[in-house]
Design brief:
By secondary structure, the chain is mostly helical. The chain folds into two domains: 8-145 and 255-431, no CATH class; 439-502, no CATH class. It is built from 17 helices and two strands. It has a two-stranded antiparallel sheet with strand order 1-2. A hairpin with a 5-residue loop joins strand 1 (108-109) and strand 2. 25% of the residues are buried. One of its GO terms (molecular function) is chloride channel activity. It is a multi-pass membrane protein. It is found in: Cell membrane.
């Protein structure tokens, strides 16, 4: 996703130009401009009068403008819904992590009276919170049509999960659990994988030879050379886990070509296409519009929510969670599942093809006959007028089509990688909390609970209360009787002071 108001922040770079829809609409705009030029030249040179009555121009233009506006508005609504769904994932992930880390005790015993050490409890809870982080990462790959679990940002988080239904005896593909079976490949069989085989390093060239993958380290312009602003490598914050097969990069944008930055050169691609020997899928269609990747089904997020629900049931069986906390955890997991379904709906339910085709054909016919209707009044201005009308209407139509599925790698799509990193930072911040006893930090000299009415520290107040036989006294109000009434009056005075201070502007 490009920065806010990128045209007014810094220079106009090729990356910002590529974020516009000019690359998508220039062939059609050029065609209708050429038609307008031909009509204007033929009419103005008195070769033949091509002007027609413009009675339908206003009516059809208004109707078509309203339809295109509805098309763009509905696409933007899906764009906003996608962002809201990711906010729901972030909130639910935060709630699940806090319940697991704080509500489940560190020192506990199961129903068979087997005591769990604090170290074991910390490892268990941190591992389950890693599954919460893995959920958002798996959703990101799911929405981008990237199936499987063998990614640099996903595999280290879930590789400890069981791989076979039977933990004892010989393990075959028939016993492989769905989470792993969906990612199995004959080239890298899991059943025959050595237990200590290190994950081989994969270069960009090797990955591009197998699939259309890139690298997180690749900049948004698709070049292998890193810039200072894009030198971040989030995989360094993950575990270094051995794998029996190469792990795909966390970010796999399709490699751009020179035609994306110099669209006028795409004319020559038509003549050079027959001489290509590679079978790489083109990023654009014959009209220059971006080709969206196919949307595939993935069971990885579903499997992760099953493991989280299983952990909830395990905690309930052993009495480690209070009913209220268990209800909150159950609702948070259900929120993840509900959000996943809504994201699936947004990404896998485009507008009907008949609606899109009819709208585009209607627009083409309108722009095709536009020069014939305005040439009698505008003369040679018909050429720039048609070009501007084509650019305006086709641009809005293409914007609606581009943001309809905002989960890919286009510069106008949602920054799913940034969302996942934000969730990762929040979960690590939660697990960094030491869950101390409140008495260790509340009744100290650093705490002034009744300020500004009473600026004594909690330690001083307790000392004074102990000297007064356990009653709270306010040193600045000796005329007030000691006890709970003094405490309440102090709180009221604090409210008055704060209300007065904060309203002084």
């Amino acid at each position: 996703m490009v920065a806010q108001n990128p045209l007014f922040q810094g220079g106009f770079t090729l990356r910002k130009f590529n974020a516009t829809v000019i690359n998508d609409i220039w062939p059609e705009t050029l065609f209708f401009t050429a038609v307008a030029a031909a009509v204007a030249v033929v009419t103005e040179r008195k070769i033949h009068d091509l002007a027609i009555n413009n009675g339908l121009l206003t009516v059809l233009g208004t109707v078509l403008g309203l339809v295109i506006s509805f098309r763009t508005s509905s696409a933007y609504e899906r764009y906003q819904d996608g962002r809201k769904m990711w906010t729901n994932i972030q909130i639910a992930s935060r709630n699940i992590a806090q319940i697991i880390w704080i509500q489940i005790p560190f020192e506990r015993s199961d129903k068979d009276k087997n005591k769990m050490t604090t170290v074991q409890s910390v490892i268990e809870k941190k591992s389950m919170i890693n599954l919460v982080q893995a959920f958002s990462v798996s959703v990101k790959h799911f929405l981008r049509g990237e199936t499987g679990i063998y990614y640099q940002d996903l595999y280290p988080l879930i590789c400890f999960l069981p791989r076979y239904a039977n933990s004892v005896g010989p393990k075959t593909n028939a016993d492989m659990l769905p989470l792993w079976a969906a990612s199995e490949e004959e080239e890298y069989p899991l059943a025959k994988a050595p237990p200590a085989s290190r994950s081989p390093s994969v270069t960009l060239d090797e990955m591009d030879g197998k699939s259309e993958t890139g690298s997180w380290m690749r900049t948004l312009t698709g070049r292998g050379k890193m810039s200072r602003a894009n030198s971040i490598d989030p995989e360094k914050a993950l575990a270094d886990i051995q794998s029996h097969r190469p792990l795909k990069p966390a970010r796999n944008p399709p490699p751009p070509s020179i035609y994306d930055y110099f669209p006028f050169l795409r004319i020559f691609s038509i003549f050079t296409r027959c001489f290509r020997r590679d079978n790489k899928r083109s990023r654009r269609d014959s009209l220059g519009r971006k080709i969206k990747p196919s949307f595939t089904e993935s069971n990885v997020p579903l499997e992760l929510t099953i493991y989280l629900n299983n952990y909830l049931a395990h905690c309930l069986r052993n009495g480690w969670l209070q009913p209220a906390a268990a209800t909150g955890l159950m609702n948070a997991i259900a929120s993840l599942q509900d959000t996943l379904s809504n994201l699936d709906r947004i990404g896998n339910t485009p507008l009907p093809f008949a609606y899109q085709a009819h709208l585009r054909m209607s627009l083409w016919l309108y722009l095709l006959f536009l020069p014939f209707q305005i040439v009698s009044s505008l003369h040679y201005i018909t050429i720039p007028g048609t070009a501007f009308a084509s650019f305006l209407l086709l641009g809005f139509l293409e914007i609606g089509q581009e943001i309809e599925n905002p989960f890919n790698y286009d510069l106008n799509d949602l920054d799913l990688d940034s969302f996942c990193l934000a969730i990762q930072r929040e979960l690590h911040e939660i697990t960094a909390h030491t869950t101390p006893d409140p008495a260790t930090f509340i009744f100290t000299s650093w705490n002034q609970p009744f300020a500004p009415a009473d600026r004594r520290s909690a330690e001083e107040i307790i000392t004074a209360a102990a000297a007064a036989n356990g009653e709270y006294t306010h040193s600045e109000q000796p005329d007030v009787e000691p006890g709970i009434l003094t405490l309440r009056r102090t709180l009221l005075k604090s409210w008055r002071d704060v209300d007065y201070i904060t309203r002084q502007q």
